[in-house]
Amino acid sequence: MTRTGPASPPLPSSPPPSQSPPTGKRMLSEQVYAHLRDAIMRGDHAPGAALKPQDLAKEQGVSLAVVREALVRVVGDGLADRLPNRGFAVPAYSDRRWQEIAEARRTIEPVLLRMSVERGDVDWEARVRAAHHRLARTPAYTPEEGEYYSEAWSEAHRLFHRSLMEGCGNRVLLETFDRLWTASELARRWSTHRNPDRDGVEEHRRLEEAALARDADTAVRVLVRHLTLTAEGLTGEN
């Protein structure tokens, strides 16, 4: 059976001859966007907090137009909301979108995992084991990155879950997984911050063991519980 792997990232393209590389306002907007995105991910802006363009412009030493352009991009990432007549704000814990994303993940990811357990080859097993080893050896928190997960741990976490799904061999389903993962990143950080006693290390260990043992029923059960705990961390449910 022929299996497809994850899509390779597109090669960067050069700007058309008639265009020059981004400069000025565009570069400033890119810098402000990156700063604001990282700040929200670090927890510098609390859930529900207003993102005031005037304050951000003063803080970053740029124009309001530059800040607004960056804010629109952050809204597109799902890391902020644009509120009618109220400007911009970080989404709240109670935002219904988080539960909708969690429901979508609990619907789709168990299907991908079951397919991976059934279809994955030895190379898939090796990738899962390596990704879990990296995750287990990566510190979840670093003092310089604030109170939420570090970027290195977040990437190791994504790669572990992605490797579990890759055995399905279906690129379209994997693209759906990628979109849902990105959409849920902020909620995932908030959830763990609100439930610091959760044993994520054990959850990931059990998930790896069940998948590599080719025990699809147990792997799916562990995954569903894993995803449910993340959603419950935002609602306060137990």
From TrEMBL:
Stretches the record annotates as Disordered: 1-26
Residue stretches of biased makeup (Pro residues): 7-20
Parts forming coiled coils: none
MF terms in GO: DNA binding; DNA-binding transcription factor activity
HTH gntR-type domain location: 26-93
Keyword DNA-binding: yes
Domain of life: Bacteria
Tagged with keyword Transcription: yes
Matching Pfam families: FCD, GntR
Keyword line: DNA-binding, Transcription, Transcription regulation
SMART domains referenced in this protein's UniProt entry, alphabetically: FCD (SM00895), HTH_GNTR (SM00345)
This protein's name: GntR family transcriptional regulator
